[in-house]
Amino acid sequence: MALLRHTTGEIKERKALTVNPAKTCQPIGAMYAALGVHNCFPHSHGSQGCCAYHRSTLTRHYKEPIVAGTSSFTEGSSVFGGQSNLITAIDNIFTLYDPEIIAVHTTCLSETIGDDLMQISQKAKDDGKVPEGKVLIYASTPSYVGTHITGYSNMVKGILKGFAAKTGTPNGKLNIIPGFCEPSDMAEVRRLCAMMGIDIIMVPDTNGVVNGPLTGKYEMFPKGGATREEIASMGDSMGTVGLGRWATTDGVNFLDAEFKVPGTILGMPIGLQATDRFIETLHKLTGKPVPEAITFERGQMVDIISDYDQYLYGKKVALAGDPDQLLPLVELIVTLGMIPAYVVSGTAGKYFDDRMAELTKDVPYDCKYKCGPLADMYLLHQWIKNDPVDLLIGNTYLKYIARDEDIPLLRHGFPILDRMGHQYFPTFGYTGGMRLLEKILAAIMDRQDRDAPETRFELQM
Ligand code: SF4
């Protein structure tokens, strides 16, 4: 905190150093995706420290015990390779915990050594360490490249490669691959599809796994998650919709290439237009009409926007997070007449720059945005030092800048370590959009009330 006070507005060109990254490590995304498969035990092939970090970050975000194994690398495995540790771990996990599936992801160390998960998995099977009917799936997730979003995407593809198949008999269902989002958002996608009468297979689906009820009884494998049978029939579906370009393109393209299941990649349905595009796509792909109940929810959101945009118009916002979340959020911010002044995403991609240019082209401000390893919260802070904003939107790590600069913070994205609600209440869809609007408005108006002189301190807006 004290160090942040030394952040200056003098921005120097950096070639390599990242300070306060707007991202986290690949295996965290892989572990989260694996939790969205029923009866699946994630396993981190690396040191205990890596696994402790992945598990604790997910545990602190979801406030649930996150189960995962580790290959527990020592000096020996670091030099000679982790095959023996992984085969022992596979044997122990199936013997002690009896999952249906083990989802192995690599780490920086095992990737640097050059451990080959395909070869080790085959050896584990040949050695009789994988019981009849049980499955190993795996994904390569070296964290010196990419981010938690890359890791999520890689494990999604690993899940599909492990199970998805085609019988040739259409199942009449639509595949949905949600990006790295909250379980509450996945539940909202399911609710909207059910309202339209669309039968879906959603992979991964962490609803009920990382946001389950307190029952007084510990369950290592909760009821939620996509089942193996569901995933196995994805090759027979009428199409696949990916929600988030960065996290789902590989999975969508895999199903298209392997099983000729046509894919559509959309942004996450956050905000009015992004949700419109999602609902329209569902309608076009399935032919199902949009029910009155969904039109009603949309109308409520439009009503809120028209009632309150006068209080939000012209307010400047700085955002940090994942591109799949940021782009629709920025679209919503612009819709509200607010200014997305500064946006950073640790996850890189040319589409981010292109889309940001498109979204901000009519905004009356020289908006700054950047993606990739050097697009960090330090840079965001420097931009803010030069010209402050009215609101911050991003994960818990932004609270230091919020405190240092005395700017309200709306927590959104991953990880959120010091608040609750994200697991249970969606920001997807029209009702989720209404919740976002409520939070944005509350942050702006609370600050206005705090700073208002006695003569302008009004009871009613
Ligand atoms: S960045 Fe690499 S070394 Fe660090 S926790 Fe992630 S996988 Fe492990």
From TrEMBL:
A Pfam family per the record: Oxidored_nitro
* UniProt domain Nitrogenase/oxidoreductase component: residue ranges: 25-444
Sorted alphabetically, the keyword list is:
ATP-binding, Iron, Iron-sulfur, Metal-binding, Nitrogen fixation, Nucleotide-binding, Oxidoreductase
Q: Which PROSITE patterns match?
A: NITROGENASE_1_1 (PS00699)
| Leader peptide range in chain numbering | none
* InterPro entries linked: ChlB/BchB/BchZ (IPR050152), Nase/OxRdtase_comp1 (IPR000510), Nase_comp1_CS (IPR000318), Nase_Mo-Fe_CF_bsu (IPR005976)
User: Reaction catalysed by this chain?
Assistant: N2 + 8 reduced [2Fe-2S]-[ferredoxin] + 16 ATP + 16 H2O = H2 + 8 oxidized [2Fe-2S]-[ferredoxin] + 2 NH4(+) + 16 ADP + 16 phosphate + 6 H(+)
What's its job? This molybdenum-iron protein is part of the nitrogenase complex that catalyzes the key enzymatic reactions in nitrogen fixation.
**What PANTHER family does the record tag this protein with?**
LIGHT-INDEPENDENT PROTOCHLOROPHYLLIDE REDUCTASE SUBUNIT B
Protein name (Swiss-Prot/TrEMBL): Nitrogenase molybdenum-iron protein beta chain
